[in-house]
């Protein structure tokens, strides 16, 4: 079996450039995966496609039954695929969650970083009071000290990535980048205006016109987040 060489993987290459440039790169949600893949292969800047939280039951069952975690990493690496792990996951909701102070057991620890690094993963998505879904009215209040401890424990052996960015103010995102985050999964941050435009105009415009206009709204937010993450001009 060929030895895994992360320098030949596009996702790893992109995050190395981010590390060297002191910036973060966005990972916007893509629902039309075939269209996204075709676009990624046709543009002049490097783009990687990331499978996040697979919903294929047969794939999950096979992985759970046949492949212990480190074997799953090896399975992907043998096929030239980089791997990402999320040690724990805190769910938000329509009203957010009241407080994460009593959920310390679900937050990532430096010891977990070591355990996951030993499996051979490439990227780690730590939990430090970030949540999947919506935050409460206070917005995100992150444990930046924990993130700093995680970064020190990772010691550059795995790249840190961020999940749960809905409602992030600019200063919160910038602090995460400064704390060693190199990839940022974004959903509503780059889709809010797009979704609002669809709601307001779906009964007024034909489908083609609607798609042309709403994509422009999403593009503006993507460009804004590129500025926030410091990745403009660093492809």
Automatic annotation (TrEMBL):
Q: Which GO terms describe its biological process?
A: glycolytic process
Q: Give the required cofactors.
A: Zn(2+)
GO MF, one example: fructose-bisphosphate aldolase activity
Its Enzyme Commission number(s) read 4.1.2.13
Provide the coiled-coil residue spans. none
The lineage's top-level taxon is Eukaryota
**What residues does Zn(2+) bind to?**
53, 132, 163
Give the co-factor note.
Binds 2 Zn(2+) ions per subunit. One is catalytic and the other provides a structural contribution.
Q: Which InterPro entries match?
A: Aldolase_TIM, Class_II_FBP_aldolase, FBA_II
Q: Which UniProt keywords apply?
A: Glycolysis, Lyase, Metal-binding, Zinc
Catalyzed reactions per annotation: beta-D-fructose 1,6-bisphosphate = D-glyceraldehyde 3-phosphate + dihydroxyacetone phosphate
Q: In which pathway does it act?
A: Carbohydrate degradation; glycolysis; D-glyceraldehyde 3-phosphate and glycerone phosphate from D-glucose: step 4/4
Family note: Belongs to the class II fructose-bisphosphate aldolase family.
PANTHER family referenced in this protein's UniProt entry, alphabetically: D-TAGATOSE-1,6-BISPHOSPHATE ALDOLASE, D-TAGATOSE-1,6-BISPHOSPHATE ALDOLASE SUBUNIT GATY-RELATED
Function per UniProt? Catalyzes the aldol condensation of dihydroxyacetone phosphate (DHAP or glycerone-phosphate) with glyceraldehyde 3-phosphate (G3P) to form fructose 1,6-bisphosphate (FBP) in gluconeogenesis and the reverse reaction in glycolysis.
**Identification of the protein by name:** Fructose-bisphosphate aldolase
The protein's organism comes out as Dactylonectria estremocensis
Lineage runs: Eukaryota, Fungi, Dikarya, Ascomycota, Pezizomycotina
């Amino acid at each position: 079996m060929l030895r895994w060489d992360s320098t030949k993987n596009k996702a790893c290459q992109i995050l190395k450039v981010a590390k060297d440039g002191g910036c973060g790169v966005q990972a916007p949600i893509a629902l039309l995966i075939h269209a996204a893949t075709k676009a990624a292969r046709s543009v002049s800047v490097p783009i990687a496609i990331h499978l996040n939280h697979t919903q294929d039951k047969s794939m999950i069952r096979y992985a759970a039954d046949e492949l212990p975690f480190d074997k799953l990493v090896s399975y992907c690496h043998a096929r030239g695929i980089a791997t990402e792990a999320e040690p724990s996951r805190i769910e938000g909701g329509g009203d957010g969650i009241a407080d994460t102070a009593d959920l310390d057991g679900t937050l990532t620890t430096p010891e977990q970083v070591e355990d996951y690094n030993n499996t051979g993963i490439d990227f780690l998505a730590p939990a430090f009071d970030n949540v999947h879904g919506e935050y409460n009215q206070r917005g995100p209040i992150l444990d930046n000290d924990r993130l700093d401890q995680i970064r020190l424990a990772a010691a550059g052996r795995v790249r840190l990535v961020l999940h749960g960015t809905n409602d992030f103010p600019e200063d919160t995102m910038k602090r995460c980048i400064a704390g060693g985050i190199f990839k940022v999964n974004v959903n509503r941050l780059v889709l809010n205006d797009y979704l609002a435009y669809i709601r307001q105009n779906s009964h007024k415009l034909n489908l083609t016109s609607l798609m042309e206009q709403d994509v422009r709204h999403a593009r503006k937010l993507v460009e804004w987040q590129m500025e926030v993450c410091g990745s403009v001009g660093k492809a």
